[in-house]
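#struct-help
A.M.: can someone run this one for me? Single chain, 339 residues.
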Amino acid sequence: MAVAVLIENLQKSYGDVCAVKDISFTVNQGEIFGLLGPNGAGKTTTIRCLCTLAKPDGGKIEVGGVSAIANPRAVRNRLGYVAQEVAIDKVLTGQELLELQAALYHLPAKERKTRIPQLVEVLGLKDYINKKTGTYSGGIRKRLDLAAGLLHQPEVLVLDEPTVGLDIESRMVLWNFLRELKQAGTTVLITSHYLEEIDALADRLAIIDKGVVIDEGTPSELKAQIGGDRVTLRIREFTPQEEAEKAQNILESLPFVEQVIINTAQGNSLNLIVQSEANALSQIEQSLNGINLPTFSLAQSRPSLDDVYLAATGRTLMDAEIAAASTRDIKKEQKQQMK
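D.P.: on it. Structure tokens below:
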């Protein structure tokens, strides 16, 4: 299978901050490939280097066999890029913005006259295209931004957190459109911290944490390799550490339990990996009742991509998001104090 995108040993720092330590992955032609990770993991920096908006400190980037470092203009012709933040002129109508974008791509007039109406129809923009973009909702702005990125019919469409802030209806419209693009042969690279989005769309994915790829494969492969069912347990709404550790010791002794992790970020809840065929919930509850630790909540599920992330890093994706947000708040406060 032909390789559409190759990224090998990518490195990028901003001053003393290392945004990308060592990222490598390939995207095959005609597939939807997902980059999954919390905010601050290095996804956007990776995408910016791929799209020639940032110069990497080291590594190799190719699109269709063309080096993004040696031949950035040729690579830009092969890419369509839709950034996380929609930046469109609120004074222009949607039609005017697409006409301007088509001119920037040097599309012939004949091609513009057919391509713009096609995208307007497919993306459901017909009722909005002659209105000023300042009147658009977030979902409609995102659709217009997507149309702009597809005007020149790129070989590879790159989407950075495309559904952040969108309502469910707009998200479903976008998901269905991306599936149609794939069927038409377009390669799609999408970054997201939404587990269900990558699980629903991606043929393959790479999970990124702290600037490195920690796992890669199809969603099914990644979930299968960690095995077993997942059990989430709370002894209390906010469990004391000593009670969580006492429960952990008891649960680790049960023959069907493969792993127990105390999730400190979520009130010392316990995350267990258990054998799929085991009658786990009743036995867990009986064991904890035997040491006077009645369960506050108890649930069992099949493995998810969050479980893959948990197994690789010892924390859930939500925990990583919380930690990243806390770090950003601290840095912001420090900067304010220095002024």
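A.M.: thanks! The chain is about 40% helix and 25% strand.
D.P.: also worth noting: The mean pLDDT is 89.
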